[in-house]
Amino acid sequence: MNITQLRNATIIVDIGGHRILVDPMLAPMGAIPPLKYATRSRRRNPLVELPVNTSAELETVTHCLITHCQKGHFDHLDRAGAKWLRQHDIPVYCMAEDADFLARKGLSVIPLQPGLRQAFLGGELTPVPCLHGRGLVSRFMAHGHGYFLEFPGEPSVYIAGDTILTDDVRRCILQNQPDVCVVPAGGANFDIGGEIIMGVDDVRSVTRISTGIVVANHLESLDHCPVTRDQIRAMGEREDLGARLRVPDDGETLVFPPQPPAEVGHIPVLTEELDG
């Protein structure tokens, strides 16, 4: 399995013979208005351009996976991303509540069902609910889902989506112990309220409950995400995490070797509803 970090939450997961584009934000630098206004130095989004290898990476994408996209969450599907998906007729997997919204954009949509492990491109996928912040701000957010992916012979991967560290997220990690967890680390916040995704402290907590590799992204691309790559890397050094914490640069590909077959007697977990 390979994971290529494009920008922000936009990654390409190369797994099971498929190249899955996750949450495409493909607009050029500065094309989208700011997300923070109570500041003297307003900055338009995205803050950085896509990496130079983006076009080459996108050429071989076979499928798309969306964690959430409504209520103005352009950083997980913007107009440029939707246009690219239409032009290339890419099948788009999303949660059922987003299916009509995406179909109206002319996309080829395949809805996923909440709560249960289900077949997915020759492997299995389990949606995990996100909590995109707490309190008043949370009421205005599209919370969405992360996804736990399992493919024969491949490392298992949990793509957290936009979430803080919740009981659902903890349970997914503790019960499944994914080989790789991709978590949002930018500590995003608006002019009021607290963090709406993980920051340094939540990422530290994830590394303490996970036995696998933690990949931190959603960094240095949006004006409301103050946490930097250097801050996450410094935390990793303090915690002596070594290669267990990865903080990829935009355009970087992380390579994870194949996994040996599961031991006889292995019993899959999460075969029922997550809250059941």
**How many helices in DSSP terms?**
6
Q: Which structural class do the helices and strands define?
A: alpha/beta
CATH homologous superfamily label: Ribonuclease Z/Hydroxyacylglutathione hydrolase-like
Tally the structural domains. 1
Q: So what's the CATH class?
A: Alpha Beta
Multimer state = single chain
| Rg | 18 Å
Q: Any idea what the CATH architecture is?
A: 4-Layer Sandwich
- How helical, in percent, are the residues? 10-25%
Based on Cα principal axes, name the global outline.
globular
Let me know the largest β-sheet: 7 strands, mixed
CATH topology: Metallo-beta-lactamase, Chain A
H-E order: EEEHEHEHEEEEEHEHEHEE
Poorly predicted regions are 263-276
User: How far apart lie the N and C ends?
Assistant: 31 Å
Number of DSSP strands? 14
Task: Please indicate the percent range of residues in DSSP E strands (runs of 2 or more).
Answer: 15-25%
Structural summary, described in words:
This protein is an alpha/beta fold. It has one domain (2-248): 4-Layer Sandwich (Metallo-beta-lactamase, Chain A). It is 19% helix and 23% strand. The chain has helices spanning 54-58, 79-87, 96-103, 167-176, 200-209, 229-238, and strands at residues 2-7, 10-15, 18-22, 63-65, 91-95, 108-112, 118-120, 123-129, 145-150, 157-159, 180-184, 213-217, 245-246, 253-255. It has a seven-stranded mixed sheet. The protein has a seven-stranded mixed sheet with strand order 7-8-9-10-11-12-13, with helices on one face. Mean pLDDT is 88; it is low at 263-276.
